[in-house]
Design the sequence.
């Protein structure tokens, strides 16, 4: 079977295998060593009708700080990657204070990928997810890539942070070059400094695309 005739499910499975099993400890960091996975806040009422197709051209900078007692869509986006190669998969985890009436509450999660392989209790704190697109038909080549969005509200000061996926301790993206014979070359592990977070109240969030942004 040649590449052109392979069904969409085949290429989705390849992307899944690449992310789930394809990152050996000794490998170079793939084609996107500086890629960032970030969060961008948009007030709930201003998102428009197309949640997974926002006007990202209007995002001149990422909004990483929000107000208490206001609902936002917290978009998960990938940026600073090779747009010629594009992206076919991503994995990450989340952390936040989920105590009732304290910190951040996640009210809803909307994926913007073709398939998702999430933890059973996703999107609870300390869980993770893996999302894929068909690398032949849906290769993501626009920067930023909109991965999905959380509907959030903070009752007190708090943060929502992107972290490594807890099940394997890795946050990563897969380029559309991912194939059975090119798995190792397609995966890029995301550096901790390139994972973003949003903060509510007086705290400051972290935009990993800004070099001067403070580290925790």
Sequence:
């Amino acid at each position: 079977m040649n590449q052109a005739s392979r069904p969409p499910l085949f290429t989705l499975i390849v992307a899944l295998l690449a992310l789930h099993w394809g990152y050996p400890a000794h490998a170079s960091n793939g084609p996107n060593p500086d890629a960032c996975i970030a969060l961008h806040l948009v007030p709930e009422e201003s998102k428009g009708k197309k949640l997974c197709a926002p006007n990202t051209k209007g995002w001149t900078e990422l909004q990483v700080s929000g107000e208490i007692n206001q609902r936002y869509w917290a978009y998960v986006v990938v940026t600073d990657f090779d747009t010629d190669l594009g992206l076919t998969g991503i994995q990450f985890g989340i952390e936040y204070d989920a105590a009732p009436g304290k910190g951040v509450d996640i009210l809803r999660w909307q994926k913007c990928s073709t398939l998702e392989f999430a933890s059973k209790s996703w999107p609870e704190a300390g869980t993770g997810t893996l999302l894929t697109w068909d690398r032949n038909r849906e290769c993501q080549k626009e920067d930023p890539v909109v991965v999905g969005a959380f509907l959030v509200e903070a009752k007190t000061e708090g943060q929502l942070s992107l972290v490594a996926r807890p099940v394997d301790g890795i946050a990563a993206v897969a380029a559309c070059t991912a194939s059975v014979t090119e798995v190792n070359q397609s995966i890029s592990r995301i550096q901790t400094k390139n994972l973003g977070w949003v903060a509510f109240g007086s705290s400051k969030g972290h935009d990993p695309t800004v070099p001067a942004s403070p580290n925790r």
User: Anything to note?
Assistant: Residues 8-21 form the longest helix (14 residues). The chain has one domain: 3-47+62-200. The helical segments are 8-21, 183-186.
